[in-house]
Amino acid sequence: MTILQAIIMGIVQGIAEFLPISSSGHLSIMKHILHINTDTGLLFDVMLHFGTLVAVLVSFWKDIKQLIIEGFGILGDFIVNIGRLVHNLHSKDKKEYNKVISSAYRKFVMLIVVSTIPTGIVALLLKEVVEVTSETLIVPGLCLLLTGVLLLIADRTVSGKKRANDVTYANAGIIGLTQGIATLPGLSRSGTTITACLSCGLDTNFAVKYSFIMSIPAIFGAVILQIKDFGTLAVESTEVVAYVIGTIIAAIVGYICIKTMLVVVRGKKYKGFAYYCFVVGTIAVIWNFVA
């Protein structure tokens, strides 16, 4: 892989990850167009996703910082309650338990945890399928067509009023499940999860925030899994430089596109993206049979 190819792929990842047009599908298509063969499986794709993960961290840092604080608060209160349970079992002087989920941010933390569980399970089950289907154009093409349908559904879905305190754990599980399925190339993660959020009655702005922040543990987990196997991969020094440059580009472009997506969602202007997915998906399917 050349540095120019890495830059192009970084731009594609940054744009497609946060606009609802599927980064995995576009990366797969671009690999065919540019004749890229990295010989490192999904490592380069995961590094590009790590770049967009950085973009999410920067864009939502205030929320993420508070979520981390409240996450430790939940853990602390849980440990305290365990201690008080032991005390109450052996003493007549009963102590009150702390309320663990005592704020909207704490509820948000638990919702993300619940969403991450089905995401991780489905992603692991589909790992080999994703690697195989990423090498073809037929699956990304068909999934892009499905993404277009989902975006039209999102466009017609009336915005709900649910924010963190109103979202149920069942809602969180369903949204997490859709994120796991969206690991299939061509199926937009943001488009799929935002559609799921809106269908569950979430407020539009909160749906976008939820979609982007819930991607953090999923992407971080994928990065950890790839790093674990990094030592067994034969990566040339020139490729390492290209990978790093692509990651940085993905982070910068991703940050810009997050801001763009926030504007798009407020206006609920998904139709243009849906039609774009229909066009690109159709071209990919046809190209698969004629190329």
UniProtKB/TrEMBL annotation:
Compartments where found: Cell membrane
GO cellular component: plasma membrane
Positions of transmembrane segments: 6-29, 41-61, 108-125, 137-154, 210-228, 240-265, 272-290
Pfam family, one: BacA
Enzyme Commission no: 3.6.1.27
Job of this protein: Catalyzes the dephosphorylation of undecaprenyl diphosphate (UPP). Confers resistance to bacitracin.
PANTHER family linked to this entry: UNDECAPRENYL-DIPHOSPHATASE
The protein's name: Undecaprenyl-diphosphatase
Source organism (scientific name): Anaerosporobacter mobilis DSM 15930
Lineage: Bacteria, Bacillati, Bacillota, Clostridia, Lachnospirales
